[in-house]
Amino acid sequence: MAAEYGVALLGNTVASAFRNLILELSKTSKVVILIDEYDKPITDYLLEPEKRNEHQAVLRSLYGVLKPMDAHLHLVFLTGVSKIGKLSLFSDLNNLRDISLNTDFALCCGYTKAEIENTFPEYLTAVAKNLNLSLPDLWQSMQRWYNGYSWDAEQKLYCLFSFLLFLGQKEFKSYWFETGTPTFLLEMIRKAQFNALQFESVLLDELTISTTNVENLEASSLMFQTGYLTLKKKQMSILGTRFELTYPNEEVRMAFSKGLLLEYSKTKSYIGSYSLELQDALLILNWVAFFEVSNRVLAGIPYVIFPRKESYVHSLMHLMLTSTGFQTQSQVQSDPSPSGAALGSRTSLGRMDTLTTTFDYSIIFEFKTAGTAQQALEQIDSSRYADSLSKPVVKVGVLFDLEQKQISDWAIR
Q1: Which band of pLDDT confidence, cut at 50, 70 and 90, is reported for residue 220?
Q2: Predicted structure pTM score
Q3: Which residues, at least 6 apart from 161, have a Cβ–Cβ distance to it below 8 Å?
Q4: Averaged pLDDT, 117-137
Q5: Distance CA 298, CA 320 (A)
Q6: 18 Cβ partners below 8 Å, 6+ apart?
Q7: Cα–Cα distance between 57 and 60 in angstroms, integer?
């Protein structure tokens, strides 16, 4: 840019050269500064403290140039995937306005349904024809795959990147996740022994959701800031503001589940194949094939990273089922009363361990590490989990042998 405007950069540091550039350009008019991915030199090295701290020092001196430049600046606009650097990078720049959760800007980062309808009608027609879907069915599928991001817990947006690639390639797939696997995040979640089920519904306060300390990273906050979780609910009271987070859509849920399954199982080569085999088995209710594949995944997990806990194997089964692409919910509260047709209603009769919905069936799984698979099946019946489901129900009782890392028995009704 300096060469383009005929400015000779002076100074022997990046910060002094940056300051000189602003001063020279402002002689013509006030300067607009746009910085994309301001935090990338830090987020790329989260697990390398030495390199991260080195980059942090350079960026702090660079951004520190901006505060005394007010008279020369018209606008400064910075974007990044996280707020990791906010306190440490901008200690000298305390006049920034964070608009990430500002409701005035809630529709800034993504497409609304109305914008898509008005801008891409020809593309939608072409995609529907290519996939042999009616427009209403196409909208339903697009919403499930790419809609769901929210910055105010009310209005939902389609992911720009994924949706545009979807229109061009005309097939449903995880475009955004393919741009890079968050290896450090998956490793952090596994080492902290997070229950994978908790990311379907995460409660955070305003302070935690808004800041992240690079020395003490918090997985849920980092997942929100990097786009793997989004706002589901926002509750304000005199006690402060609390947020409920969840996966934004099926693209992120399925891809992140596969990534977690890879990290948990350490079975690096075959998860994609396993997901397809599980999907095929569920479609035709081939339970011998389903549990044979499940046991292959479990067998591949090294003993040293296999906690002997029911919650761990439940998490793995949840990830395996989610990786198939079928809608999967765990710890589901159901209402057995005639009026309780909607899932999520509270009942004193307990919760289903996992509910997976295929094209034709609602499949209820109950997992046990003690007793028998038949007892697990009887618990589904006695708790009347199936009463509020509209599709034909298949009930599956599963018994895990934690010492052998295997499903030792199952019962079907």
Answers
A1: confident
A2: 0.81
A3: 175, 176, 179
A4: 97
A5: 10
A6: 62, 65
A7: 5
CA-closest candidate to residue 151, choices 99, 205, 96, 115: 99
Amino acid at site 391: K
Count of Cβ atoms closer than 10 Å to residue 401 Cβ: 13
Say yes or no to pLDDT of 407 above 90: yes
pLDDT per residue as tens digits for the range 171-209: 998 888 776 667 778 888 877 777 778 888 899 988 788
In the chain, CATH 3.40.1350 sits at 260-412
The one-letter amino acid code at 204 reads L
Cβ 354 vs Cβ 405: under 8 Å: no
Name the amino acid, one letter, at 327: Q
- pLDDT tens, position by position, 30-63: 999 999 988 888 878 877 889 988 988 888 888 8
- Let me know if domain 260-412 sits in CATH 3.40.1350: yes
Helix extents (H) in 217-309: 219-225, 250-265, 271-284, 287-299
Phi first, then psi, for residue 333 (nearest 5°) are -90, 130
d(CA 83, CA 222): 9
Measure CA 198 to chain center.
12
